[in-house]
Inverse folding.
């Protein structure tokens, strides 16, 4: 299998990297903690890329990996990786406006157990960016879906470790509108696609944490030499680097499998999310150890990416849950 990027994909990745480095510095991520509106300007800069949500997953993964690298806040992931693919799958009338970046949306699906599967619970949990988007697609048992405006919907902000991705509870008991039938296989594909996209984002975060640790290991002097010359530090960096590259390959393969509707895409998606979660949390743990005392301070930017790493690992199924699904596939084959 050829993982080489095409010229167009290289341009997409480089453009995303340059744009996000300029438009989403750590100062913006910090400002977003106190005022979510601080990310509004960033949304205007990335809205044109929502169209990636209606195209190949491989391309979307290239872009969201860069958003993970800067811990980008705002509604981009919810709109491009969840809402847009769902609308496109059901041929909803809002699809053109969403893909054009003219309106935003999110998806409410998970029950109290956090599993992203259709259920009859009236309260939907872990709904991303609910108060910063225009529409929400609420999926209920059946499955059925209703797309409603978010104005005055009963919701509650959840306290999570990651302040750059705001998650909510939504009470869907008295929502307006008529629920439309949704094919179960279609829903599975939408969730699978979002899971792989989130894994790609985690790889971006893991790589950012690794790069920060590597740079610090080159600069921090102890006993008159850089701490990167110590074997214990070298082993940590080498192990994290291997896990990041492994996760990157798993994500690329899963994205290609989803695009090709390959029979292996279900297994590949679980592998990608589990590998990315492991790489991100391992990178976070070792990065903060390599940074020593300075890594634990509020003033250092490391905690912004550590929060993103652990928050994303838990969302759309933690690593252990995906390992369990892989075991189910293995023993029930």
């Amino acid at each position: 299998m050829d993982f080489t990027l095409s010229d167009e994909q290289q341009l997409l990745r480089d453009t995303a990297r340059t744009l996000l480095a300029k438009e989403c510095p750590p100062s913006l991520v910090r400002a977003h903690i106190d005022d979510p509106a601080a990310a509004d300007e960033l949304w205007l800069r990335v809205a044109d890329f929502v169209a990636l949500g209606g195209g190949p997953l491989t391309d979307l993964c290239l872009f969201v990996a860069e958003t993970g690298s800067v811990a980008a806040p705002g509604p981009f992931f919810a709109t491009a990786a969840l809402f847009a693919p769902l609308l496109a799958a059901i041929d909803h009338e809002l699809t053109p406006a969403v893909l054009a970046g003219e309106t935003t949306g999110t998806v409410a699906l998970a029950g109290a157990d956090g599993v992203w599967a259709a259920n009859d619970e009236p309260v939907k949990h872990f709904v991303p960016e609910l108060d910063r988007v225009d529409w929400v697609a609420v999926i209920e048992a059946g499955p059925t879906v209703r797309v409603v405006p978010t104005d005055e919907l009963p919701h509650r902000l959840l306290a999570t470790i990651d302040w750059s991705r705001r998650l909510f509870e939504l009470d869907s008991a008295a929502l307006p509108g008529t629920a439309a039938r949704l094919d179960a296989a279609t829903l599975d594909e939408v969730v699978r696609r979002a899971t792989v996209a989130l894994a790609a984002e985690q790889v971006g975060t893991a790589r950012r944490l690794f790069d920060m640790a590597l740079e610090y290991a080159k600069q921090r002097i102890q006993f008159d030499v850089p701490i990167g010359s110590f074997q214990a530090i070298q082993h940590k960096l080498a192990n994290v680097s291997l896990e990041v590259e492994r996760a990157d390959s798993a994500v690329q393969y899963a994205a290609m499998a989803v695009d090709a509707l390959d029979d292996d895409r279900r297994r590949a998606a679980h592998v990608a999310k589990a590998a990315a979660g492991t790489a991100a949390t391992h990178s976070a743990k070792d990065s903060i150890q390599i940074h020593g005392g300075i890594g634990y301070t509020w003033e250092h930017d490391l905690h912004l990416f550590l929060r993103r790493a652990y928050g994303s690992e838990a969302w759309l199924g933690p690593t252990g849950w995906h390992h369990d699904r892989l075991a189910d596939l293995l023993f029930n084959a």
